[in-house]
Design goal:
This protein has nine helices and two strands; from the N terminus they run ααβααβααααα. The protein is mainly alpha-helical. The protein has one domain. The longest helix has 22 residues.
């Protein structure tokens, strides 16, 4: 085990951060603020609910696992860039959640008429409608996509680049299509992504 962790040194930092992040996130989830800002806007009323988008929403977890696994075990050249993007953005998101509590009131009444509605109901039950802006789902997807597309190995396969971009777009859309996030949650996630991308490019040439 020791030799394994020495060979794949980046894995332990990923585990350390994941544990710290989950502790912070759970503390925020269990803290109910009386000054919560609702992020719903008029735009959300034009976005229809579609339970089938729960598939790309769930695929986010697969995307994150495979993305981190790629940089930890296959292409360690890009691991610092990936950790910078993801760790910094997720940490800042927690700080924003703590300082500016947010929530949304967009969830729909579900009758579990099919497996997709059942999956959405399950997501509603395990993930509250608070701490939503910026959307971690959107931010992580975009920055993982950016980091993967900067990989020289991945650039060799145009079909894979297209697949990564398409999946990222579908994941971002899924957050509002299943009413897990409001439109503004996506907007602020993209703004955060652009800011951190700019910092990484200027300061570390990522």
């Amino acid at each position: 085990m020791k030799a394994f962790l020495e060979k794949y040194n980046g894995l332990k930092y990923l585990l350390y951060f994941f544990i710290a992040y989950m502790i912070g996130f759970m503390l925020l989830e269990n803290h109910h603020s009386s000054r919560m800002i609702i992020t719903d806007s008029w735009i959300d009323s034009y976005i229809p609910f579609n339970e089938y988008f729960v598939i790309p929403y769930i695929l986010w977890f697969v995307f994150m696992v495979l993305g981190f696994a790629y940089f930890v075990f296959i292409n360690q050249v890009g691991i610092k860039r990936t950790y910078f993007y993801l760790f910094l953005g997720m940490s800042l998101s927690l700080l924003i959640y703590a300082l500016i509590p947010t929530g949304q009131n967009l969830r729909v009444q579900l009758y579990n008429e099919n497996i997709f509605q059942c999956l959405v109901s399950f997501i509603y039950s395990v993930d509250s409608s608070t701490n939503v802006c910026p959307s971690i789902h959107v931010y992580n997807s975009v920055m993982m996509c950016v980091s993967l597309l900067k990989s020289q190995r991945i650039k060799q396969y145009s079909w894979l680049c297209v697949a990564i971009v398409v999946l990222t777009v579908l994941i971002c859309l899924s957050t509002v299509m299943i009413k897990q996030h409001a439109f503004m949650d996506i907007v602020w996630a993209l703004i955060l992504a652009m800011v951190i991308y700019y910092i990484g490019k200027r300061k570390y040439a990522f």
